[in-house]
Every structure is written in C-alpha cells, then in structure tokens.
Amino acid sequence: MTLARIADTSSCDTLPCDTPPSAGWDLHCHTVFSDGRQTPEDMVREACDRGLHGVAITDHDTTTGWQDAVDAAERHHLPLIRGTEVTADASGVSVHMLAYQYDPRNARVTDLFVSLRKARLTRTRRMVELIAKDYPITWDDVLAQIREGDETTVGRPHIADALVAAGAYPDRSAAFAGAVGSRSPYYIPTPSPDAADVVRAVRQAGGVSVIAHAGDPSRNRTLLSDTQIEMLIDAGLDGLEVWHRGNPPEQRARLLAIARRHGLLVTGGSDWHGKGGKPNRLGENLTDDQTVARIIERGAIPAILPH
Ligand code: AMP
Ligand code: FE
Ligand code: FE
Ligand code: ZN
C-alpha cells in the first residue's frame, strides 16, 4: 500500500473525528521484547487476519523487536510503523509516552532506554526480594519468564508470570490484582524520566510523540490536568491516544477538546499484550489512515509499506 493510498481513505469532515475509527491501524502493541506474550511475527499475522490496514510495534523502553517486526511485515505484506512506549513522570503523575518513527540511532534516546532498562532491572529485582519473603519465587524464576535476550524490558508482568508458574495465581491479571499490583505492599514504582524531557528527546530524534491512555483513571489517583498536557504540547507533543479502552467517555471528550484546540493528532490502539498478557484484543481500538499518514510524514524513518 502506498502513502498516497493511505492518505486517500479519510472519512471524517471535522478533524479529529469524535467517534472512533471503524477501520485503520492499531498503534499500540507489545511483544515478547517487553511484556507482551507473543512475537512480532504473531502480531503481524494476527493484524492481517483481523483486516487491519497496518500495525505499530510499541514495546516498553526498547527498539529491540523492531527488526523482527520489519521482517514479518515484509513477509506478510502488512504496513508497519515503528515505535516505543516510554514510562515517564509529570510531577508525580505516571505518564506513558508513545514515540513513533524516531531515529533509533539517536544517542539521547538510546542512552535513555539503556538507563531505563537498567533501573527497571534493579527495581524489579527489589520487588522480587520483597515478594519472595511471602511467595515461593526466586529472581531466577523471574528471569526464566523472559523469552528474548538481555535487551528485553523487564518489569512486573514477568514477576506476575513467575507467580503464575509457581501456582500462586491463576493468571497475570490475578497477580496484578494481588502481589504485583500498585496497591500491594511489595510495590516499588518504576524509575521514570520527566515526560517533557521524553517529548523533547523524541522530537530531537525526529520522532512523533503521543500520550498513551492519558485519561485512564485506574492508572493514577490524579490524572494529567489540561495545563500539564499543555506544558507537554509546549515541549513538542504531537498527539493524544484517545481511542483506548482505559479512557472513559468523559475523558475521551476532554482529550478530544484539547486535541481540537491545539491541532493535535488523535490516535487509537489496543494495548495488546498477546494471549495471557491482557484481555485487550488486537485492533479493538484503531487510528485512522489519515492520521497515520501524518505520523509517517513527520517521522525520521521510513514506514514499512510493502507492495
Ligand atoms: P511495570 O512497568 O513494570 O510497572 O509493569 C506495568 C506493566 O504491566 C504495564 O505496562 C502493563 O501494560 C503491564 N501489564 C501486562 N499485563 C497486565 C495485566 N494483566 N494487568 C495489568 N498490567 C499488565
Ligand atoms: Fe505493558
Ligand atoms: Fe501504557
Ligand atoms: Zn502499552
């Protein structure tokens, strides 16, 4: 599919549309290179089966899965853009930034990811030390849950999988409702860079930044305020992920209003983590083709658009 064909298929008069797109791309997907349970190949195959126009790989704090995703997209003739979900912080509010189509060789971004993954490892190991006092798991059991190599982003989902393997919980979601959840006594927050710094780093690397699930009340006691979002816009923010299962209707309306006021991109994605990862289905939320075309135009690297 060519970029022109992608750009051709818009259907909404007022931009951004105030209803979720019924066709398009899933721009929020995790694989075994972070905390997803399936490979980039599985992601691409399932996206084809579901009739998506394209897909984005967005593992946490890494680009390690990009090459596998490119190979799979070419094999299956499915358009692909490349991205990363970066865990960040804005004055105590946890903010997940989706960064698309940036130059993966940019030193500021690669240094950021290396230090984030290192800090995550220390933090996850500390949580396991605490949990191991009450549950039958060791650090090695957690490491055994990592499907890829040293550059996989390790976090609470891997602890959850070790607890499931030890028989302490029936599945990952149950472990998140218990020992690994953010309200458990074992919880330690992920060390996170400032969200405005992430926006600036992504911009410097030629990428496009979008706040993921900014209106999800289950993630934060206090959500990002309009003013905080406006500060990120001043830092170079490109868009808001409005179409995400975590954003309730009133938050979608608030985010859409901000997007209209500031001419931001409006995106959607499933936050797919594969079978046994989360219940989210690939393609359950989508980004329209025209918005994807804008991301591709703005980005520093080519999209994979197989003929
Ligand atoms: P961490 O970043 O280490 O604090 O772990 C939080 C991550 O767990 C988020 O990226 C979630 O997407 C992920 N996660 C994966 N599966 C689940 C689940 N079943 N319930 C809640 N969070 C999950
Ligand atoms: Fe995740
Ligand atoms: Fe997220
Ligand atoms: Zn995600």
What's the SSE blueprint?
Layout: H1 3-8, E1 25-26, H2 40-49, E2 54-57, H3 66-76, E3 80-90, E4 93-100, H4 107-131, H5 139-143, H6 156-165, H7 172-177, H8 195-204, E5 208-211, H9 226-235, E6 239-243, H10 249-262, E7 265-268, H11 289-298
Helix pairs in contact: 2-3
This protein binds adenosine monophosphate, fe (iii) ion (2 copies) and zinc ion (ZN).
The site of adenosine monophosphate (AMP) has 13 residues, from α6 and α7.
Major β-sheet profile:
7 strands, mixed
- List unreliable stretches of 5+ residues: 1-10
Query: Compounds present?
Result: adenosine monophosphate, fe (iii) ion, zinc ion
The radius of gyration is 18 Å
Q: Which structural class is indicated by helix and strand composition?
A: alpha/beta
**Would you list the SSEs in sequence order as H and E?**
HEHEHEEHHHHHEHEHEH
Per DSSP, what share of the residues sits in E-state strands of 2 or more residues? 5-15%
Nearest-integer average pLDDT:
94
N-to-C terminal Cα separation, in Å? 6 Å
Instruction: Enumerate the strands of the largest sheet in spatial order, edge to edge or round the barrel.
Output: 1-2-3-4-5-6-7
Residue share in helix? 25-40%
The number of distinct helices, counting runs of at least 4 residues, comes to 11
What spatial form do the alpha-carbon principal axes imply? globular
Work out the number of β strands. 7
Key structural traits:
12% strand; binds fe (iii) ion; seven-stranded mixed sheet; globular; alpha/beta; binds adenosine monophosphate; binds zinc ion; 307 residues; disordered N terminus
